[in-house]
Amino acid sequence: MLTGFYTAASGMLMQQRMLNVLSNNMANVKTPGFRIERVVSSTFEQALLTRMEKGNQAVIGSGDPIRIVEDVPTGFDPGFLETTDRPFDMAIAGEGFFVIQAENQQYLTRNGNFDLDEEGYLILRGAGRVQGQEGEIYLGSSNFTVSREGVIYDGNQRRVDTLLITRPADYAQLQKYANGMYIDPNAEATANNPPGVQVIQNTLERSNVNLNDEMALAIEAQRAFQISSSVLKSIDQLNDKTANRIASL
User: Fold this and answer.
1) 83, 138, 145, 198: which sits with the fewest CB atoms below 10 Å from its CB?
2) Taking the chain, what is the end-to-end CA distance rounded to the nearest angstrom?
């Protein structure tokens, strides 16, 4: 009986985690550069299945009644590019990330929805200042252009800096942070301004979330959660009946 209880409870916990991940994906469907996440499950342990018949027992195989969340990997497939009217909007065509410097941490992001702070530096709101090859990028105004190579020119066509684009050595090692940003624990192995990468101004890369797919998966996870909940309730009622029957003997 306890096996059934744990099986149903583990099903509820896993589907709840699935719903949380899917809900986060859907909430960020319009977040520039956001990358989709998926839940990967694994078995907690194998249980031997035994057949008992006419006083004899025989092992007939094994099963995995309890499943747990093993990992929540990120899918780094590119999103589609959308033209905007803002010179501060930039998108990366190819692999790589923009580099954002916060107070005590450096972040990587595909979100190129940049702006100017009060001092005239190029920033990602709520995160930090955008990094160039020579450090923080000072623009002072919206009168600037960015070449496909990431070179920034002011209104007089004088070079300001080149956007720092990095490509992690191992995407699987990136640590997810808030708002589609990542921390690279192996920054020393990161390739800066890898060849073949282009920067497109007046353009944003949208998330790679397909809302229809996420809604279908969410409905499936919700139904699985409800089924596990019903099974758990039935087991609990059966336990009560068994306990009452034993107490009455």
Assistant:
1) 83
2) 20
